[in-house]
Amino acid sequence: MPHWLSYTSYSLYFDAADMTEDDTEFLLAIAAFQKRFGRRYPTWLEILYIARCLGYRKVADAVPIEQPLPAKGGESAGRAGVVGSTT
Questions:
Q1: In terms of CB atoms within 10 Å, which end of the chain has fewer, N or C?
Q2: What global pTM score does this model have?
Q3: 63 vs 80: CA distance, rounded Å
Q4: Which stretches of sequence are listed as region Disordered (predicted)?
């Protein structure tokens, strides 16, 4: 198996990377996990583990994906992960 040059496929300095501090913290935590454990592609359970290590907890009831809330704070629908939104 060939050795990769980088564990991550994103750049914090990409021109269109208008990431928040939370976005940056999460991406750096993923990169640190990848490097520490030699995992190029973490599983979804590993990503959930990383999010919990960052302090994320479920604090509200689940919302069906078919009924997403409108984006808040001027975020675009794509940025909020809303697919097929007409807002």
A1: N
A2: 0.57
A3: 14
A4: 68-87
